[in-house]
Automatic annotation (TrEMBL):
Gene3D superfamilies: NAD(P)-binding Rossmann-like Domain. Pfam families: adh_short. This is Oxidoreductase. It comes from the Bacteria. It comes from Actinomycetospora chlora.
Amino acid sequence: MTSFPSRVWLVTGASSGFGRAITEAAVAAGDTVVAAARRTGALAALADARPGRVEPLALDVTAPAADLTAAVDDVVARHGRLDVLANVAGRTQVGALEETTEDELRALFDLHVTGPALLTRAALPHFRRQGSGAVVQMSSVGGQVCVPGFGVYCATKAALEALTETAALECPHVRFLVVEPGAFRTELFRPGAAVLSAPMPEYEATVGPTRAFVTGGDGTQPGDPDKAAAAILRVLAADDAPLRLPLGADAVTGIRARLGTIAADLDRWEEVSTSTDRDEG
């Protein structure tokens, strides 16, 4: 395991859920966290209990690029460095593609893809100057496993994963960690938290069960956010850290099944797939 001195984190979505759990775990490990959220009131007690170690920051990750860059630069100016950027802010959205409005589609991509991309881009010059840094991207099992009604949500997470995998190839001095949780007891499923597209009766059979799970399943999720935060910190410190970290038995089972399906299709259709190369000569 790699030993780190006290680190400086910037965590988005820090007021609740995974963001709150990561903030608390990092502070418990001796680190300093700039805890970003749209509304910072929920962070007041934590900041008061950890003066100088938790700094609430009002930040909307869908803000213009200049504002996000300024926020990252300000963290570095005040602390002298930034060691870990954790892009955690997010929400659940349920709707078949036909049910999803243009505004819902664009808003979720801004929150889950554009915002994290711009914050990561803003952090990279500082990491390059330091010669080190880490980015934690909060994806989901939905970044690899699709479920009816979660199409747009899954698409945003898949896009974030592809962007991050490419960035890891471009920036070997930076450690990237894509976290893929299954169902955890965060606030994503609490009443009113999810964006629910207006339902169409044509999709009741396919999307209806997902909508019912999201609106009625809070408190039944098997995952523990505090254990997830501990796992993230453990993997970040590992010398052989993976790029992707599924969390929860449901995530591991679902991803393994998907990979098996992909491998089987590759084997079954390999002759057709490879028949398209040009004939030489």
